[in-house]
Design goal:
This protein is of the alpha+beta class. The chain has 7 helices and 13 strands. The strands form 3 sheets. Strands 1, 2, 3, 4, 7, 10, 11, 12 and 13 form a 9-stranded mixed beta sheet that branches. A two-stranded antiparallel sheet has the order 5-6.
Length: about 230
């Protein structure tokens, strides 16, 4: 059983973030539970890499002195699984916004899908989505996007180490991707659709690994809270 000093000296906690929770909400749920359990006025706590509310999966949360490890953990290679929906695009590149354009998919074959993944392996240039938490002129880009302002986003170099199509059931295709820090899977969905001359958006996403940490060893924020309070 973890003690107050354990959390203050530093813990790496593996959380399986539920759908529609923000990463901030998950951190706050743990912070509240730890403070309440040990009657602490404050404790340092933070996560090593945001997950969008519409994504689930591995969130690494560091407490106490281990918050210093966050930059190092953020730099680790990540693995994701999920689903692209072909034949339609959205402004946010995922389900946060409505479909803005539809495209034909009749020309898409399994061979074309498999061959297209090859274009995305290795070092590639990627433009982050306008609907992202990156800052431009001191404001989050998604705030500017929601205000309808035009935002110029510069491409960045990222690395796709593995890109595997695990299931094809058109218009949906399931995938597994292993990638570097700074990769946006929403942008990958958008660019993949464009490469197929059909358009696509991300309709499901789960982060399964960060470095050597696996979501199999993670618990939901609610389970963490229940386990902590029951001891």
């Amino acid at each position: 059983m973890k003690t107050k000093d354990d959390f203050l000296n530093g813990q790496i906690l593996l959380i399986d973030k539920p759908l529609e929770w923000s990463s901030f909400q998950a951190v706050n749920a743990l912070k509240w539970a730890i403070r309440k359990k040990f009657d602490l006025k404050k404790i340092k706590i933070g996560h090593a890499g945001t997950l969008d509310p519409l994504a689930t999966g591995l969130l690494i949360i560091c407490t106490g002195k281990f918050t210093k490890k966050i930059p190092e953990l953020q730099g680790q290679v990540k693995e994701y699984t999920g689903t692209f929906t072909l034949g339609a695009t959205t402004p946010s590149y995922d389900l946060e916004t409505e479909v803005d354009q539809s495209y034909p998919t009749e020309h898409i074959t399994e061979e074309l899908i498999q061959a297209t993944t090859e274009q995305f392996l290795g070092e590639i240039e990627q433009v982050p989505p306008i609907f992202s938490a990156l800052k431009k002129d001191g404001k989050r880009m998604y705030e500017l996007a929601r205000e309808g302002k035009k935002v110029e986003v510069k491409p960045r170099t990222i690395q796709i180490l593995e890109f595997e199509i695990t299931k094809i059931n058109l218009p949906k295709i399931d995938f597994r991707v292993v990638c570097s820090k700074g990769t946006y899977i929403r942008s990958l969905a958008h660019d993949f659709g464009r490469a197929l001359q059909s358009g696509a958006h991300l309709s499901a996403l789960r982060r399964t690994k960060i470095g050597d940490f696996n979501v199999c060893n993670a618990v939901s924020p609610i389970t963490f809270k229940e386990n902590l309070m029951s001891k």
